[in-house]
Amino acid sequence: SLSQPEREGMFHRGPGLNLTSGQYTAPIAGYYSFSTTLHIVRREPCRKGQGCRGSRLRVLICVQSRCQHNRNLETVSRLESSGDLFTISVTGTLYLQAGQYASVFVDNTAGSPLTVQSGSDFSAVLLGV
């Protein structure tokens, strides 16, 4: 059954997604395709002289909040430019046991506060068991 979107632009089918916790819980064991696209704003632009060189932003999709290698999907983006809006995507396949959850993490080494904008998304699709 389809559920009504809670706000404009949202589509939600199936029982696994908890919008409060930001977690997707697998109803059955299997391989799931995960995808997230985050629109991130740096609230404080790079200051002259300090620059942003070497600043990295990691976005991960982790199982059971454990982000060790081979239990996650991740991408790393360098914050080289002085622009304050970044769009970062992560897509891939993870195996989840029934009842395990996956969620999105942002590892900010930029040293300035970041905000995830509305319009960002997180999805999971069961590929097969």
TrEMBL record:
Coiled coil location: none
Subcellular location: Secreted
Keywords assigned: Disulfide bond, Glycoprotein, Hormone, Hydroxylation, Secreted, Signal
Domain C1q: 1-129
BP GO terms, sorted: negative regulation of gluconeogenesis; positive regulation of D-glucose import; positive regulation of insulin receptor signaling pathway
InterPro entries given in the database record: Adipolin/Erythroferrone-rel (IPR052136), C1q_dom (IPR001073), Tumour_necrosis_fac-like_dom (IPR008983)
GO MF, one annotated term: hormone activity
GO CC term (a single one): extracellular space
Family: Belongs to the adipolin/erythroferrone family.
Cited PANTHER family: ADIPOLIN, ERYTHROFERRONE
Protein name as it appears in the record: Erythroferrone
Source organism per UniProt: Pycnonotus jocosus (Red-whiskered bulbul)
Upper classification of the organism: Eukaryota, Metazoa, Chordata, Craniata, Vertebrata
Gene it is expressed from: Erfe
